[in-house]
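Sequence design from tokenized structure. All designs in this work follow the same two-part layout: the structure record, then the generated sequence. An example of the structure record is given first.
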């Protein structure tokens, strides 16, 4: 039972830290553009391949 007196406050601190990091990431704009980086990877590879094909 005495372990709960230690574990419950520790879990609340971890939860508070996770919520704090989530709020920080929202303020810094980490979730503004979720699709852009995924599409950028695909299009960058195609553009590089086209450039290489034209050079050969």
């Amino acid at each position: 039972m005495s372990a709960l007196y230690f574990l419950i406050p520790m879990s609340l601190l971890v939860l508070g830290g996770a919520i704090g990091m989530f709020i920080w990431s929202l303020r810094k704009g980490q979730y503004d553009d979720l699709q852009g980086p995924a599409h950028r990877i695909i299009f960058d590879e195609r553009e590089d391949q086209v450039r290489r094909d034209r050079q050969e």
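Residues 2-27 form the longest helix (26 residues). We note this feature because it recurs in several other targets discussed in the main text.
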